[in-house]
Specification:
The protein is of the alpha/beta class. It has two domains: about 160 residues, ATPase, nucleotide binding domain (Nucleotidyltransferase, domain 5, 2-Layer Sandwich), CATH 3.30.420; about 180 residues, Nucleotidyltransferase, domain 5, CATH 3.30.420. The chain contains ten helices and ten strands. The strands form two sheets. It has a five-stranded mixed sheet with strand order 3-2-1-4-5, sandwiched between helices. The protein has a five-stranded mixed sheet with strand order 8-7-6-9-10, with helices on both faces. Helix 4 crosses helix 10 and helix 5 packs parallel to helix 7. The longest helix has 29 residues. The structure holds 5'-O-[(R)-(carboxyoxy)(hydroxy)phosphoryl]adenosine and zinc ion (ZN). Zinc ion binds next to helix 4.
Length: about 375
């Protein structure tokens, strides 16, 4: 019998709800996937402001839930279970989605499956791929999550068997993208903007051209670790040295230095992205071989990056591991991936395991892959 899972995600700056239909096939059908982004609210601050995010989630949660059910043509009574992000994330934001999901599950008398946000990203690979096909990575594989909050390696043995191997020591890569874009006054979120400027640089100068040279923090003695704060600071220092626009909002407009000319912005963005991606490709290649795993999945917002996809693809084709990406629309935060993780856990553990949820609380710093993950 087909099972309908309603997913809810509010851990950061997207209010999202989705309906998935689990049947006999290897990938669930995405009946609806509604994402209300708050980017325009946070753009002028160069990052997410928690209180503003929470207020917007409160406004949006009911209409987004309604839209997800309506688009799926599924009435609330047909929902078999609700899956919700319980952590990690901004506590004030998590609480909005968790409270709504709890209320719904309680009212409908269905199970509530609490999902770790990163387990959601790992499960974006089990949604239909870019071309609509079902081509999930094999178990075990190396799950690499690169988002605004995480740059982490996991060993993925099954839908409930995820072990943390290591990750960034400071900034997540997405966060570094956002900060670099903010330093250059380019807008938020920074990832897609920097990616676009890099492509423009390559188009204007040819693929052999050298952009601004930035350090590549390889941390050779720590194969699973990353550190992007030095790279971010190098971009900041370069901008200062060159006397270029520094996005200091405390200065009155007349006192601000000149805006960065586009060719310079392109060369800086290209330099940053080439340095970051080179480190990333090197690390992934080393970790997958060290762990003796046959496949790598890359998920999270940064997995939408075209240069990263190309460079990792080139490396995978030279070595003996396969590379898997989610469809681009499932890279950045969404509720389909949360419903997907929830649906597989429900299939494995049965509905009774998820009926006692009244005491569930948001956990803003929940670690994935430690002993308590169940
Ligand atoms: O997964 P996500 O939506 O949220 C978190 O869980 O953090 O990731 C958001 C991050 C942002 O930092 C954004 O700049 C980055 O993903 N991002 C990208 C791209 N699209 C989004 N980074 C690089 N290239 C992209 N195309
Ligand atoms: Zn995320």
């Amino acid at each position: 019998m087909n099972v309908y899972i309603l997913g809810v995600e509010t851990s950061c700056d997207e209010t999202a709800a989705a309906v998935l239909e689990f049947g006999d096939g290897s990938a669930p059908r995405v009946a609806s996937n509604v994402v209300a982004s708050q980017h325009e609210i946070h753009e002028k601050y160069g990052g997410v402001v928690p209180e503003l995010a929470a207020r917007r989630h409160v406004e949006m949660i009911a209409p987004v839930l309604e839209a997800a059910l309506e688009e799926a043509s599924v009435s609330a009574e047909k929902v078999d279970a609700v899956a919700v992000t319980r952590g990690p994330g901004l506590v004030v934001a998590l609480l909005v989605g968790l409270s709504a999901a709890k209320g719904l599950a309680f009212g409908l008398g269905v199970p509530l499956i609490d999902v770790h946000h990163l387990d959601g990203h790992v499960h974006s690979l089990f949604l239909p791929a870019e071309d609509g096909s079902a081509a999930p990575p094999p178990f075990p594989h190396l799950g690499f999550v690169v988002s605004g909050g995480h740059t982490d390696f996991y060993r993925v043995d099954g839908h409930s068997g995820v072990t943390h191997l290591g990750g960034t020591l400071d900034d997540a890569l997405g966060e570094a993208y956002d900060k670099v874009a903010a330093i250059m006054g380019l807008g938020y979120p920074g990832g897609p903007i920097v990616d676009r400027l890099h492509a423009k640089f390559l188009e204007a100068n040819g693929s052999g051209a050298a952009p601004v040279e930035f350090p590549r923090p390889h941390l050779a003695d720590r194969p699973y670790a990353f550190s992007f704060s030095g790279l971010k600071t190098a971009v900041l220092n370069y901008q200062k040295e060159q006397g270029l626009y520094l996005s200091d909002r405390n200065l009155p407009p007349w006192a601000r230095p000149q805006e960065v000319p586009e060719e310079v912005a392109c060369a800086v963005a290209a330099g940053f992205q080439e340095a970051a991606v080179e480190v990333l490709v090197e690390k992934v290649s080393r970790v997958v071989r060290r762990e003796k795993l046959p496949a790598v999945s890359v998920s999270g917002g940064v997995a939408a990056n075209s240069y990263l996809r190309r460079k990792l693809g080139e490396r995978a084709s030279q070595e003996d591991w396969s590379l898997h990406f989610p469809a681009r629309k499932y890279c950045t935060d969404n509720a389909a991936m949360i419903a997907c993780a929830g649906g597989f856990r429900l299939r494995e553990r049965g509905r009774e395991a998820f009926m006692d949820f009244t005491d569930l609380d948001a956990d803003p710093s929940w670690e994935l892959g430690d002993a308590s993950d169940g």
